[in-house]
Design brief:
alpha/beta; Rossmann fold
Length: 244
């Protein structure tokens, strides 16, 4: 039986790489998006044209009603969700003294509440089926913090704590919960980093380069596979050695 994966924020970057990789490994793929409708539907169309099973569904992960609707549509098309990849995330790069309450809430609503909403929405069936895998995308900044990224770092640290606790709670139901915490990756979110800063980050990284989304997607696919059945509550950080 084909398994089904739901990937949030899957229209570009790490999420898009995950959608393509999971499709290539015989998963039904649900491509979640919020604003990037054209990109998400184009990706779904390309996967279907290549012989894979994929659909694009719009939902703001911070809105529980929209998340529940997305799960209902997914279940009608593909049946129960076997793997959830909580990838949707946003950041505001600015001094902590300059960030507004609205911006702080926006980061936490998408990054943390979105992870809560989607995880809780899929867990009912996962617990009933006594099987499931949840992979939450955090960041090295959730592990060590970053200047001018207090809200983002705090939200990603919350995801790590959330995942470790949830892993203990749902482990008896044969459900694993893990975290992938990428380093500096060549994505749209990091496109506003200046060339000078990017060069410094390359210099500080032992592998002397920036990572690419496919390398993160491969770590996520591994955690979703049977090879990782005895791994739960863990943080895997593809970061080129920048944080050890």
């Amino acid at each position: 039986m084909k398994k089904t994966v739901l990937i949030t924020g899957a229209s570009h970057g790490i999420g898009k790489s995950c959608a393509i990789l999971f499709a290539q490994h015989n998963y039904n793929v649900i491509i979640n998006y919020n604003r990037s409708e054209l990109e998400a539907k184009l990706l779904a169309s390309e996967l279907v044209d290549s012989g894979f099973n994929a659909i694009a569904i719009r939902a703001n992960v911070a809105n529980r009603f929209e998340v529940d609707e997305m799960i209902q549509i997914s279940n009608k098309v593909f049946g129960s969700i076997h793997v959830l990849v909580n990838n949707a995330g946003i950041a505001h790069q600015k001094l902590f003294t300059d960030i507004s309450e609205y911006e702080w809430d926006e980061v936490f609503n998408t990054n943390v509440k979105g992870t809560f909403n989607c995880s809780q929405a899929v867990l009912k069936d996962m617990i009933k089926n006594h099987h499931g895998k949840i992979i939450n995308v955090a960041s090295i900044f959730g592990m060590v913090g970053a200047s001018c990224e207090v809200a983002y770092s705090a939200s990603k640290a919350a995801i790590i704590g959330f995942s470790k606790a949830l892993a203990k709670e749902v482990g008896p139901s044969n459900i694993t919960v893990n975290v992938v915490a990428p380093g500096i990756i060549d994505t749209r979110m990091n496109s506003n980093i200046s060339p000078d800063v990017m060069e410094q980050l390359k210099y500080q990284t032992p592998l002397c380069r920036i990572g690419n989304p496919d390398e993160v997607a491969n770590a996520i696919l591994f955690l979703a596979s049977q090879k990782a059945n005895f791994i739960t509550g863990q943080v895997i950080s593809p970061n080129g050695g920048l944080v050890v």
